Amino acid sequence: MKIADLFKVEGYGVVVTGGASGLGLAYAEALAENGARVTLLDVDGERLSAECARLTGLGYDVSGTIVDVRSSTSVDAAIDAAAARYGRLDVVFANAGVDSGPGFLSSWVGDQRPRNPDGAIENYTDERWNRVIDINLSGVFRTARVAARHMKAQGSGRIIITSSVASFQCEPAIGSAYMAAKAASVHLMHMLALELAAYQVTVNAIAPGFFATNIGGGHAKSPVVQAAMAKVLPMHRVGFGDDIKGLALFLASPASSYVTGQEIAIDGGWTLGAAD
Ligand code: NAD
Question: Is 69 in the pocket of ligand 1 (CB under 6 A)?
Fold first, then answer.
């Protein structure tokens, strides 16, 4: 067997939550470009139809279903339907997530990072906390649960969670609920990996650093923010969708068949510390 064959995902049945934008869309492109059949689940119907039309126009086998990962019923129904359509379920990316609004500091970088009362713990509302936990943590649980039903029975599969470097490094510009949800999603990933290993189902997490996506209203796409971040990132640039495709393909393909329970950071060296 040629080493390149280890990365083959042709014909795979794949589901990506939060697949209409940003990193989820990059995962979908990586898999679809390599011959997988991909279902995008997303709460944003407009973006979902636009991206499905664009990707099918490129000749890829991609479809979309409007799903809010806060609803177990709709997550179950959409993933059951994808598995039935494909006759198999090889890879599920539990990726949908939201920013939690400002943290206790009001900017990402810079000499002036004033305290922000809205993000301070004493003012943190239940509504804000519950929304982030419901999407970024319970959404992962709901997605992984239905994926496991199919993959365990099939005796194979890949569940890939999008965590964040915020799962182990505090980021004061993002609210506390985000840190808690991401850290918990990683330990959930560890537990699921342990439980499902005997069924040849692997469970891993991708921990992105700072990527230019639409999260938080698209602040990471601002050239000013990117230039400021580039100063503190050791590689002196933010991440883009194409940067994450290789890791997504590795974790989704036979190349990673003996890797489970791992969180892999992809952050241009951000979490190593300050360089020059
Ligand atoms: P994005 O906003 O570009 O994409 C997220 C997608 O998830 C959107 O299409 C959105 O509509 C969808 N979504 C949001 N809530 C949903 C819900 N309740 N149900 C279904 N879909 C929903 O953002 P992104 O940066 O690509 O975020 C993807 C994941 O990556 C998130 O889990 C995020 O926390 C994580 N992440 C992003 C960064 C970054 O720098 N962009 C860094 C670390 C982790």
Answer: yes
